[in-house]
Amino acid sequence: MRLISWNVNGLRSVLKKGFLEHLSSWKADILCLQETKASREIMEELLPTLNLPYPVRHFHSAERRGYAGVAIFSQREPERVFVPEALARCSSGDEGRGLIQDYGDFYVVTLYVPNSGEGLRRLDLRQGIWDPACAAFLKDLAAQKPTIVGGDFNVAHQEIDLARPEQNRGNAGFTDPEREGFARILRAGFVDSFRHLHPEKRGAYSWWSLRTAARARHIGWRIDYVLISRNLCPALRDAFILEDVLGSDHAPVGIELNLS
Prior knowledge:
The chain is of the alpha+beta class. It has a single domain, classed as Endonuclease/exonuclease/phosphatase (Deoxyribonuclease I, Chain A, 4-Layer Sandwich), CATH 3.60.10. It contains eight helices and twelve strands. It has a six-stranded mixed sheet with strand order 3-4-2-1-12-11. It has a six-stranded mixed sheet with strand order 5-6-7-8-10-9. α5 (123-144) runs parallel beside α7. The termini are close together.
């Protein structure tokens, strides 16, 4: 099974930048999207018009128009689809940050974790509410069955995960509380698939600032992950970042699993 996760920074925007062509070439079984930036009404109108190589299309939009939002497209219909209510309550109003597919023998989750923002204005939310709730929720899922989580976690976990750790220490995405929040998820029973297979690989990034043309200079951060519950590690065959794929300020990340 091949799963790819991508923060598209606007589904309608990325559709103008080769999105459908990418999907055809990837041949992924499951596609997790973050930051679709489209209301429920827009998604319901848009998706039937698209020639997507996925017959199954589920999404969860934010109450606020043009903000956040996630989706999962797949080849196989899950037994059920649901929203993580524990996370939906972690902010004022539903920000459309999570969606789960239950395939009977495993879960697939897509997450768009809140950014702490300029001046770390949402760091208290991350540290005190979202990160603990997220770790507890994922731990509960993994206790039920193997779980795969693809998403934008808005944090570089280790110094190896960004180009300039010293200059960014204490900035949004690389504060000690955010890094500890991510570590809490790993302690809850999850594995960073990319780092599991590539423990020493440097210069592997999934996000670049648009403000500074950082992508052209390869000054990036790895803040997008596919996490797997530990019991899936023997099935992990590959973990990758598609850094050459343009259209968003994020690159797609993915895994291949042998679930037979």
